[in-house]
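Can't paste images in this forum, so I'm doing it all in text. The chain is below; anyone willing to post the predicted structure tokens underneath?
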Amino acid sequence: MRNVQSQASGTGTNTDSLGFYSWNVPENLVFGDDNFAAFFGFNIPTLRQGLPIEAILERIDVDDRLRIAQAIHTAIVQGGLYQETYRILQPEEDALTVLASGRCFRDETGTPACWVGMIVADPLEQLEHQSALTFHCRAALEIAEQSGQRTVAGQLRTVLQVIQRWS
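Text version of the structure:
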């Protein structure tokens, strides 16, 4: 894992293990932050211009690739949440295990429009560094914020503050 130890403002979250991405489904362009680029081995300027989902899938371990492609397809067709663990191929290193979560949003006509999500690198290592409750509350907070559930997000922030005080 990389040695960078940045902190999300006020949350105490180790942000070098989190990558965020979006996918313009109709145009088939995936965009991601610096961590997402590092996890998949893409240069940042290229990823900021957008890459087809196939380029992302090619970096996933061949033993996981079909399962992930099918899970993405199911989430798009059914409109549900996507959450999968898989391995990303790394040059000159062991594969990086990640936990990816996302959701496909539809436009006013019901057509898949935008997919948003996050990836946690080395999720088991992350769980060793924070309680399972904190981990899941943070994941729920991200989902609430992405889906515009401000009240739920506020409640989850309060829960996380209480957990931190008692840790």
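DSSP finds seven helices and five strands in the chain. Confidence is low (pLDDT under 50) at residues 1-13.
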